[in-house]
Automatic annotation (TrEMBL):
<keyword id="KW-0406">Ion transport</keyword>
<feature type="transmembrane region" description="Helical">
    <location>
        <begin position="213"/>
        <end position="233"/>
    </location>
</feature>
<dbReference type="InterPro" id="IPR006990">
    <property type="entry name" value="Tweety"/>
</dbReference>
<dbReference type="GO" id="GO:0005886">
    <property type="term" value="C:plasma membrane"/>
</dbReference>
<keyword id="KW-0812">Transmembrane</keyword>
<protein>
    <recommendedName>
        <fullName>Protein tweety homolog</fullName>
    </recommendedName>
</protein>
<comment type="similarity">
    <text>Belongs to the tweety family.</text>
</comment>
<keyword id="KW-0472">Membrane</keyword>
<keyword id="KW-0407">Ion channel</keyword>
<dbReference type="GO" id="GO:0034707">
    <property type="term" value="C:chloride channel complex"/>
</dbReference>
<keyword id="KW-0869">Chloride channel</keyword>
<dbReference type="Pfam" id="PF04906">
    <property type="entry name" value="Tweety"/>
</dbReference>
<keyword id="KW-0868">Chloride</keyword>
<feature type="transmembrane region" description="Helical">
    <location>
        <begin position="240"/>
        <end position="260"/>
    </location>
</feature>
<keyword id="KW-1133">Transmembrane helix</keyword>
<dbReference type="GO" id="GO:0005229">
    <property type="term" value="F:intracellularly calcium-gated chloride channel activity"/>
</dbReference>
<comment type="function">
    <text>Probable chloride channel.</text>
</comment>
């Protein structure tokens, strides 16, 4: 009778991924049924993983075309004197940085969701493995009690009751009950192989998941570091920092496209399993589990009979019958054969222990426990796991596109830095209004060199403007304004100094400076007359 699944429904995104086209290496359509052991299905997943390689190739091709166009445009504008506009580059860097930060947020969420789903899967597998291990232990313990312990006691009682036919008949009947229990317990399915498989799958899955989670975490941190380094490189205009950033951007670009391909193939393969998980599990367990047993645990429907119910009922009735026979022998045979009491009590203890184990076995063989673990594993993989993989694929796609745009912005910043350096190289360093002139270190010899006008004007006002020379030991320190100017500009500031020793007038005059300047012009006129007037 067919069972109806009401407790598990595959999410819509698994059907969407399941409908992705599956092609092998020669681009022939492949059935999307989850068959990981078939070569064609493996090839279809590899083809899906190559989507990342195709994206990487397109990104590198686009970057190459942009770099060639940038170089050509830069050569065409070498002769122009207009300063390039950096607003577009700045906004491009800001937008790409925001996109990368948003993608990193999506990636953190997807990584956490995938990790939660895989953890739920491994926890359910370990719990189911513990249940199966308990079943194996109870079956083995019950068989040991019946086959070894009870049979030994019955053999000794057979020797003791050799003279009593009625007691021997009770022993023969008990041996028949022991054979029934052994036969029914042996008929139970051997689930030791399933126990080992679940443990191996859980451990391997946890191992792979740890390194997957760590790899994505490092990639997310790398993207954040790249955003910070790009901001610093563009603000400081540091070439070595930009070179290092370009190397890390290329590395992150390659990893992003690789993660996109791997994530897409994993999500599609997992969705193929989630759409029809029962069929795959029945095919995988057909060597050691019958179809009715597999369906009983996979569906756990009230309409499905318990395949172990008959065996458990027969075993329970056989144990109860033996308990009744032991009670009668203890009552009637012990007064006649006192030596038989020890073996009869030993059989009674073994029957009690076996009966208790049989009750535990009945509870563990019920479908509700293992079915719950099965549903939890499906929910973890098909809901949280696949959803997290989709978010990680979105992160990889956004990050790859944003990193490509960031590389274009870095290339543009590099050309702008070259243009700015060329503009500074064209400026005359002897120009007194050049901002770079203030960076030239102060030379005390240079301060004593006067222009022609300063020297001639000092002839007429030497006594009034210049103090007498002092010895080296009594030389006064330079004025405070010169010390401040040497600290902040590298050369003395002359804005508050008279025009003695200056080759050009200051931008403004104080009243005292104007008086001094006019007196110097009068002295020059008296000394030279009108020889130098124009």
């Amino acid at each position: 009778m067919a069972a109806v699944r009401l407790d598990y429904v595959a999410p819509w995104w698994t059907y969407w991924l399941h409908n992705f086209p599956h092609f092998n290496f020669v681009f022939q359509p492949v059935d999307s049924t989850f068959k990981p052991e078939e070569a064609n299905y493996q090839q279809s997943l590899i083809v899906l993983a190559c989507v990342g390689a195709v994206g990487l190739g397109l990104s590198l091709q686009a970057l190459t075309v942009y770099l060639v166009c940038l170089c050509c445009c830069h050569k065409d504008t070498d002769g122009e004197t207009k300063r390039p506009n950096t607003c577009c580059v700045t906004w491009s860097a800001v937008i790409t940085g925001l996109i990368i930060c948003s993608a990193v947020g999506v990636g953190f969420y997807g990584n956490s969701e995938t990790n939660d789903g895989v953890y739920q899967l491994t926890y359910s597998l370990h719990h189911a493995n513990h249940t199966l291990g308990g079943i194996n232990s109870l079956v083995a313990g019950s068989l040991g009690n019946v086959e070894t312990g009870i049979k030994q006691h019955l053999e000794r009682l057979d020797e003791i009751f050799a003279a009593r036919t009625d007691f021997l008949q009770a022993l023969r009947f008990m041996q028949l009950m022991v054979s029934n229990v052994v036969r029914e317990l042996t008929a139970l399915p051997d689930i030791k192989k399933a126990n080992v498989d679940l443990a191996a799958i859980a451990d391997q899955t946890a191992f792979i998941e740890y390194y997957r989670w760590l790899t994505y975490l490092l990639l997310l941190i790398l993207d954040l570091v790249i955003c910070l380094a790009v901001c610093l490189g563009m603000a400081k205009h540091t070439r070595w920092l930009l070179i290092m950033v370009m190397a890390f951007v290329m590395l992150s670009l390659i990893l992003s496209w690789a993660s996109l391909g791997a994530g897409t193939a994993t999500a599609v393969g997992t969705s193929d399993f989630c759409v029809s998980p029962d069929k795959f599990i029945v095919n995988q367990t057909k060597d050691f589990l019958s179809a009715d047993v597999a369906h009983y645990y996979l569906f756990c429907s009230p309409n499905l009979p318990n395949p172990f119910q008959q065996s458990l009922t027969i075993s329970q009735r056989s144990l109860t019958t033996m308990q009744i026979q032991i009670q009668g022998l203890l009552q009637f045979s012990v007064p006649i054969f006192p030596t038989a009491e020890r073996d009869l009590l030993g059989i009674q203890r073994l029957l009690n222990s076996t009966e208790f184990s049989l009750h535990q076995l009945t509870a563990l063989l019920d479908c509700r426990g293992l079915h719950k673990d099965y549903l939890d594993a499906l929910m973890g993989v098909c809901y949280d796991g696949v959803e997290g993989l989709l978010y990680l694929a979105l992160f990889s796609l956004l990050s790859a596109c944003a990193l490509s745009a960031m590389l274009c912005a870095i290339f543009r910043v590099w050309t702008l830095m070259g243009s700015r350096e060329k503009e500074y190289d064209d400026i005359d360093e002897e120009d007194p209004f050049n901002p770079q002139a203030r960076r030239i270190s102060y030379n005390p010899r240079r301060s004593n060199i006067h222009s022609f006008c300063s020297y001639t004007s000092s002839l007429g006002s030497e006594a009034s403007l210049h103090p007498p020379p002092q010895s080296a030991s009594n030389a006064a320190p330079p004025p405070e304004y010169m010390n401040q100017s040497m600290l902040f500009g590298g050369s003395p500031r002359y804005e508050n100094v008279p025009l003695i020793g200056r080759g050009s007038p200051p931008p403004s005059y104080s009243p005292s400076m104007r008086t001094t300047y006019l007196s110097m012009n009068d002295a020059q006129a008296r000394h030279f007359g009108t020889d130098f007037q124009v």
